[in-house]
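Table 4 source record.
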Amino acid sequence: MKINFSNITENLAIVNADREAVVNVERAARYTFEDYHSLTNQIANFLQYELKLTNDDHYVCILENDSLSLMSPMTAFKGPGCICYTNVRDSVAEHSWQIDTVEPKAVFIESGMLADYFEFLSKRKIQIVVMDEIPSAFKTHEHIYAFWDLVAQASSD
């Protein structure tokens, strides 16, 4: 039996449109079921159309829990590729080993961690998605994206 998670979140959005689905206390963000359905669709769409991930690709999340809530199983089930979660508290060396093992096409990372990971990820030609604003020292580099810019450009269908 196949399960279509987009249909599941769409049905939840229809039935519970204005009720809260996700509360992100750290960033003072609240998402209704309707908002969360649209947002997870936008993320799934930019994974496919902007980052060019396919079902055979992997992507890694090195994220705090508040950002990780946006890359939840609902997002992962809707979009292409295989999501690989890490423990944000692991060392750079541990994450490096994990990334070399998984060989992801993209890494989602917190802005404050980029300096420690940039060289390693760039050498491997991995696309980098920074969850907040891209630090000014890295804005001119290729293959670095701001998460919310990608969201804003993506369809919510």
